[in-house]
Every structure is written in structure tokens, then in C-alpha cells.
């Protein structure tokens, strides 16, 4: 088999291994998130808000690598569920601030079991988990920077 053919094999694609792993991990989250009444993207947004208590839509988008067009419908659903508030900034009306409601704050306690349960389901040791996390953070940083250099990393 020539080198070009080998390069084009699915099993040799880092992007596919990451994509498939992400989908499989997201499936593991499903039963936990259903109990919380959240989708996976909503869960990610809530994690940022549990950490920060409040942030702008732009700050949330930067943390999640999502644009406002993707975030707005997600945040509207979270607001309709009574978990977050969306308010225009008094200093700059172009800025929309997202905050947690009491119900949104309380959901954090229920969600606290999710990370440990997922680590147990994947049979990762704490050391393996930490090693993978650091490798993927490094990869994300490099890929994001490469996207910025080529003009394909704009997130709005």
C-alpha cells in the first residue's frame, strides 16, 4: 500500500478518533443529563456559569468555542427552563449578561455526581484522566491557534 493510501485510511485520522470518542463520551453523559433536564451543550454552558456565576454571551462563547448564533437559542431554552437570566448590560446595551437563577444554582448540586460517574464508566484512573485532559487541552490550544493563523478560527 502506498503512503497516500495509508494516509487516507479512516483508522489513521486523528480527527476521526477525536470525533468518535467525543460522540461516545457524550452518549455516556446522556442518562445523567436527562435527569438534570439538560442537553450536553446546555450542561457545558451551565458548568461555565456555575464556575463564574455570571458572564456575557461573548465570554461564554469564548469559554465554549461557540458563536453567539449557536449560543442564543441554547440560552433561550435555559432561560425558559428557569435556570438562567439574560439581561442587557446597563453600561453597554449591546452586551447581554447571563446569570444563574436560584434554580440554576441548585442544579449544580445534582450535577456534582456526573464527572466522577463518567470517570468510573470509562475506567480511567485519576492519573490517566489528568494525562489525557492535559494532552487534549494542549491539542485544542494548538488547533485553535492554527485556525486563527489561517483565518478559519473565527468564532464570531
Q: Overview of this structure, please?
A:
The protein has a domain at 37-107: Winged helix-like DNA-binding domain superfamily/Winged helix DNA-binding domain (Arc Repressor Mutant, subunit A, Orthogonal Bundle). By secondary structure, the protein is mainly alpha-helical. It has a three-stranded antiparallel β-sheet. A hairpin with a 7-residue loop joins strand 2 (84-88) and strand 3 (96-100). Helix content is 67%, strand content 8%. The termini are far apart. The protein is built from eight helices and three strands.
CA(first)-CA(last) distance:
43 Å
CATH superfamily placement of the domain at 37-107: Winged helix-like DNA-binding domain superfamily/Winged helix DNA-binding domain
Shape: globular
**What's the level 1 CATH class of the domain at 37-107?**
Mainly Alpha
CATH architecture designation of the domain at 37-107? Orthogonal Bundle
Which structural traits does this protein have?
156 residues; mainly alpha; Arc Repressor Mutant, subunit A; 8 helices; globular; Putative transcriptional regulator
Spell out the blueprint of helices and strands.
Blueprint: H1 3-7, H2 14-36, H3 40-52, E1 54-56, H4 57-64, H5 68-80, E2 84-88, E3 96-100, H6 102-111, H7 114-121, H8 126-150
Can you describe this structure in just a few lines?
This protein has 156 residues and is mainly α.
